[in-house]
Amino acid sequence: FFFSSRRRHTRFLPVSWARRCVQETDVSSAPLPDTIVWENYDMSGFSKFLRRIISYFVSLLLILVCLYVVLNLRKLQDQVYEEAPPILCKGKSSTKEEAYQDYQQEIANRVGLLECYCKQNIVDRLTETFPNGEKLCQGWLQQQSLTNGLPLSLIHI
């Protein structure tokens, strides 16, 4: 055995500590299931049944709550994607006017120039005000954070 020698597990301790800390341990195997008197467990059939029903109910409730949360987060994610679909901006650059004109179009007709414009210099453009008085890059960043954060929140739930 690994602990067969008393000296082996006390070699780094001072001798006075080793005498105080080391105790002989008697290890024996667990009793066989046949030797356990299950009647002494003192639980009636109705009590077992009731506990099982409560356990099933709590489990089902947790599953339904998680399903509700997942479906609502999925619905919210679909709404965000509908308002601001993901755009590939490689090679695309746009001016503030082009981005604003694209933003004014209906959602289905947008090309995504606002996203490309905001990504070019995100730090400076967060505080930039557009002709309608809104900070569109700030709103775009919030939507992107929601869109990218929802899948992560689904994982953690």
Any descriptors?
mainly alpha; 0% strand
Estimated radius of gyration: 33 Å
The total beta strand count reads 0
Helix and strand content put the structural class at mainly alpha
Order of helices and strands: HHHHHH
Give me the oligomer status: single chain
Q: Which term fits the overall shape? A: elongated
- Individual helix count: 6
Distance between the termini: 45 Å
Q: Average pLDDT value?
A: 77
**Which band does the percent of strand residues land in?**
under 5%
Mind describing the biggest β-sheet? none
Structure, described:
- The protein is mainly alpha-helical.
- It has 6 helices and no strands.
- Helix 2 runs antiparallel to helix 6 (136-156) and helix 3 (96-104) runs antiparallel to helix 4 (113-120).
- The longest helix has 39 residues, at 45-83.
- The radius of gyration is 33 Å and the shape is elongated.
- Mean pLDDT is 77; it is low at 1-8.
